[in-house]
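Per reviewer request, we include the raw input and output of the structure prediction for the construct analysed in the revised manuscript.
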Amino acid sequence: MVSRRRAWYRQGEALTEEIRNTATEEGALALWHLGQCGFVWKSGVKNRVTVYIDPVLNDLTDDEGVTRRHFPAPFSPDKAEGDYVLCTHWHGDHMALKTLAGMAEVNENIKFIVPGSCVEAMAGAGIGRERILMARANQQIDLPGLSVLPISAAHPVHALDEKGQDMALCYFVTMGGVRLLHLGDTYLTDSLLEDLEKLPAPHLFFPPINGGDYFRTSRNCIGNISYIEAAALACMLQADLTIPTHFDMIQGNTIDPLIFAGELMEQNPAAKWHIPALGERFIYHR
């Protein structure tokens, strides 16, 4: 499988130093892929902002203690430096509590933006509530150098917890003049499509592509949109550049991202896409 052959282009201190020292001009954004749906985004001149989304910097093991990862974390949580962390939902390959607690311990100013249903779990991991920003669907969060519009995700359906808080979210983020749409984990529904079509065209689009099937569902592995749906969305939303996600990290839940690239080019030969290497710095210019 292609995911078994993935390795870090840059990791450890070399990667953390590069993230720390990278500067971008207005209208540009630097990003690094951390595997699965995890990225680091950095932008800004006067208001320079570093954002982690769905970072998993710890091991993930099964009930017998065997790792489920195809590749190790690039560095430990205590080496991560940033201003904000976004989590799309509570699953351990998106909201990794060991990672988040480790980041919080060494970064006293970092803030965490999570769905309302995740706040108690975050607090239970030792993260102060004053550092947790509750994200609610359709309620924009404006911060220095950053705006975040949460959108209800269907994982596998649009759902609220017993307190009426969102269980899973997509995020439409604007930073440094660049618009990013990260779908987290979701299926496509009428209401999600309606929400997405109201947005300005994203400069960068991050859809999951691993799909779903009977066998994964029988293992309690909730799927996502397929690579065909992801390509169709990229075309419908007129995304400038599409970067697929959720294809590489977890054993038994992978797909070759080149299949997505082929489908996207079939649907729109002019569409742009990029599949970043793990830990590769990619700089996007609007």
